[in-house]
Design brief:
It is a single chain. The protein has 239 residues and is mainly alpha-helical. Helices cover 78% and strands 0% of the residues. The chain is built from nine helices and no strands. The longest helix is centred in the first third of the chain and has 35 residues. It is flat and about 80 Å long. The termini are far apart.
Length: 239
């Protein structure tokens, strides 16, 4: 089993080098919220690598019981382990949806899908927009449970879809079409970078207002229930 142990050690070393390169160059330059997502992605890659490596080792042991592997077989196992490690280390843990898919996805799943899409746009966005991306992400997470029981045919659902499923992606894609060399060049008194930041601020505020509107009935019900409890029990206790 020493040859198999060597193969495992080699696979782990390969993953360690790849992980250091990717986390050092990517995670080190993004905000804490994005770091959390990068950590989750790395966890998924590690899981896939572990499953693939275990499958390879089990197959190697089964074959070894039937036909001795020898040095050549052990080298093949090592090569397969390294190949699986490299493949799943660079393979995306989860593909972000396209703007076309966002336009068609169920409104109840739309906030989470939009958040994934927006996170994937980070490399193309200027540093001042990163905080807004995080804030929009938090707004979308708050919005998700509110849409769980919302009828997709209501005006509220239509407004949500239009804002986060159509206008937000279209706005960001329009910015990404601007050549990088022109994004900091003033035009009509503002740079494209500034226009992006201002637009994201408006979108973040509107999502917050949508959340408040969707919560209005729940807030009214809570207030009514509270007054009923006061009338029912507080007043009864005073008698």
């Amino acid at each position: 089993m020493s040859e198999v142990d060597d193969a495992i050690a080699s696979a782990r070393a390969s993953w360690s080098r790849i992980s250091d390169d990717r986390t050092g160059t990517v995670i080190g330059r993004v905000p804490s919220r994005a770091k959390s997502r990068q950590t989750q992605a790395i966890g998924k890659r590690l899981t896939r690598i572990a499953v693939a490596d275990v499958a390879i080792l089990i197959a190697a042991m089964v074959i070894g019981w039937i036909v001795p592997l020898g040095i050549g077989g052990a080298m093949l196992v090592m090569a397969l382990l390294v190949a699986a490690t490299v493949l799943f280390a660079v393979w995306p843990a989860e593909r972000a949806p396209t703007p076309e898919r966002l336009a068609a996805v169920d409104v109840r799943a739309l906030p989470a899908q939009t958040e994934r899409w927006l996170e994937a746009q980070r490399p193309a966005l200027p540093a001042p927009a990163m905080t807004l991306v995080d804030r929009i992400g938090l707004r979308l997470e708050t919005l998700t449970p509110q849409l769980a029981t919302l009828d997709a045919n209501t005006q509220e659902a239509v407004d949500v879809r239009k804002l986060i499923g159509e206008q937000l992606p279209a706005f960001v894609k329009d910015y990404e079409k601007v050549p990088p060399s022109l994004r900091t060049t003033p035009r009509n008194g503002r740079t494209p970078d500034a226009e992006l930041v201002d637009g994201l601020k408006l979108i973040e505020q509107e999502i917050g207002e949508m959340t408040a509107r969707l919560a209005q009935n729940d807030l009214d019900n809570l207030s009514t229930r509270g007054r009923f409890l006061e009338m029912k029990y507080k007043d009864d206790g005073a008698q």
